[in-house]
């Protein structure tokens, strides 16, 4: 379950009020990790150029995780600047999370997250300080893949269904 925000700011220009975080959390918990959920990682290169790549992402224990090959542009960008965004399209809401991605090197945490990946249908295993599997997304680059933990600083949600609305949430970090 995604953690609760510490504050919220209504961004709705049409007066229908603040978007309830519970609605967004339910959409995220139902959709993160599903193949049909569009998910994108936004990073910035050392020269300041933005980059976005489709990724696979899972949530466990209130934390989001994703993998990336060490030689990929997104991993090189994160090595220089860990601030990034994760963007999702759920049936009820578009959600953009801003925060920090940190590479996970703890074997116990990698084992725990690899087990969640396996439960979701991707046959991931820990190999040293990385994840291996028989396959991954093209955008991940060749394996083994580094595991990243994403810490949410802010979130912006735009509802696509009733009650509609747009809200920015701040998280304790």
Description:
The protein is an alpha+beta fold. Helix content is 18%, strand content 40%. The protein is built from three helices and eleven strands; from the N terminus they run E-H-E-E-E-E-H-E-E-H-E-E-E-E. Strands 1, 2, 3, 4, 5, 6, 7, 10 and 11 form a nine-stranded antiparallel sheet that branches. A two-stranded antiparallel sheet has the order 8-9. A hairpin with a 2-residue loop joins strand 4 and strand 5. It starts with 6 loop residues before the first strand and ends with a strand.
Can I get a quick summary?
This protein has helices at residues 21-31, 73-80, 107-119, and strands at 7-10, 38-44, 50-54, 57-60, 63-68, 83-89, 93-104, 125-127, 130-132, 146-159, 166-170. With 173 residues, it is α+β, with helices and mostly antiparallel strands.
The profile of the biggest β sheet is:
9 strands, antiparallel
Q: Order of SSEs, N→C?
A: EHEEEEHEEHEEEE
* Residue windows where pLDDT falls under 50 for at least 5 positions: none
Give the tally of β-strands.
11
| Arithmetic mean pLDDT | 92
Radius of gyration: 16 Å
Global geometry: globular
Termini separation (Å)?
17 Å
Fraction of residues in H or I helices? 10-25%
Any descriptors?
18% helix, 173 residues, alpha+beta
Strands, helices and their partners?
Elements: E1 7-10, H1 21-31, E2 38-44, E3 50-54, E4 57-60, E5 63-68, H2 73-80, E6 83-89, E7 93-104, H3 107-119, E8 125-127, E9 130-132, E10 146-159, E11 166-170
Antiparallel strand pairs: 1-11, 2-3, 2-6, 4-5, 5-10, 6-7, 7-10, 8-9, 10-11
């Amino acid at each position: 379950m995604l953690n609760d925000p510490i504050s919220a700011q209504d961004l709705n220009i049409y007066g229908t009020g603040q978007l309830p975080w519970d609605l967004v959390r339910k959409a995220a918990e139902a959709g993160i990790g599903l193949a049909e959920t569009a998910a994108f990682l936004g990073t910035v290169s050392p020269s300041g150029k933005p980059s976005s790549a489709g990724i696979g992402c899972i949530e466990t224990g209130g934390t989001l995780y994703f993998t990336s090959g060490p030689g990929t542009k997104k991993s090189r960008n994160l090595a220089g600047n860990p601030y990034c965004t994760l963007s999702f399209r759920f049936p009820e809401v578009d959600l953009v999370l801003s925060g920090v991605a940190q590479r996970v090197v703890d074997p116990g945490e990698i084992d725990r997250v690899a087990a969640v990946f396996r439960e979701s249908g991707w046959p991931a295993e820990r190999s040293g300080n990385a994840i291996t599997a028989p396959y991954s997304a093209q955008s991940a680059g060749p394996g083994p893949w580094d595991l990243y933990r994403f810490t949410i600083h802010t979130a912006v949600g735009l509802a696509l269904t009733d009650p509609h609305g747009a809200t920015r949430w701040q998280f304790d970090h």
